[in-house]
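Progress note, sequence design subtask.
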């Protein structure tokens, strides 16, 4: 984590009114754009302190600046290439959170990597490995590394972002569908292992079509104006992290725009 962002992040005065998420700390992956950025801003509006994780520092800095401009607590940046990360990298993340911030109340896994649809015979081993690494292995490894920190929080919550093609695989979605199906399998295992009321509550949300950078990559000719926005889902995810949702755990939820997640 960058020194200029740590140390001050829990002490900065701000204009956010008191809310159920004030003084809580959330790690958001993929925070430089799309849903990750929208979730970070929505949590910041509720008074939470954010740790912004992503591959590209310049994108994270834009989210950082947007949070400060909205009067949110000063966030922390953690540039990290999930595609290249190994055990030691996840351990260093957890150590930085523990020593430089001192707590972690939740994680929202928004980082995603997907290739445009294509026949299986055109998909490479490297592309499959990258997608499985980012979409499944990284969330599981981050949760494992941060489990002790989460367990110390009064209401720890983890949200995984699934995908409709992982839930119901179809032709041409290949490695992306497999990686998201693997994430769904991991979620079911982790939810059982965290079944105790004192364990972190973990839920998986499937957004469906949404005007995100990932969607633009896989559907370049689509009318984005007709799609729900990441900001709309971000509000629902923020509610899912709130104390009022503490009884919601181990659920796979398909998001319907305009409706609460429950």
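Output:
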């Amino acid at each position: 984590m960058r020194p200029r962002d740590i140390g001050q992040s829990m002490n900065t005065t701000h204009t956010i009114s008191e809310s159920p998420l004030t003084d809580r700390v959330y790690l958001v992956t993929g925070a430089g754009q799309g849903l990750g950025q929208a979730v970070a801003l929505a949590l910041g509006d509720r008074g939470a302190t954010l740790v912004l994780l992503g591959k590209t520092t310049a994108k994270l800095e834009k989210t950082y600046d947007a949070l400060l401009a909205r009067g949110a607590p000063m966030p922390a940046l953690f540039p990290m290439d999930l595609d290249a990360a190994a055990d030691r990298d996840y351990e260093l993340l957890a150590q930085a959170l523990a020593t430089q911030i001192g707590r972690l109340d939740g994680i929202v896994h928004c980082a995603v990597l997907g290739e445009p649809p294509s026949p299986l015979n055109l998909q490479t081993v490297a592309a499959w490995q990258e997608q499985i690494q980012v979409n499944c292995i990284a969330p599981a490894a981050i949760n494992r590394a941060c489990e002790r920190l989460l367990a110390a929080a009064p209401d720890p919550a983890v949200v995984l972002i699934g995908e409709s093609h992982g839930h119901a695989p179809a032709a041409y979605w290949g490695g992306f569908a497999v990686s998201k199906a693997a994430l769904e399998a991991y979620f079911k295992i982790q939810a059982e292992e965290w079944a105790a009321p004192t364990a972190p509550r973990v839920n998986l949300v499937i957004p469906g079509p949404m005007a995100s950078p990932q969607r633009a990559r896989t559907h370049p000719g689509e009318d984005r104006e007709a799609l729900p926005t990441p900001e709309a889902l971000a509000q629902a995810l923020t509610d899912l992290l709130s104390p009022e949702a503490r009884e919601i755990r181990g659920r796979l939820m398909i998001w319907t725009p305009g409706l609460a997640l429950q």
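The beta strands are 25-29, 49-54, 76-79, 106-109, 157-161, 201-206, 252-254. Work on this subtask will continue into the next period as scheduled.
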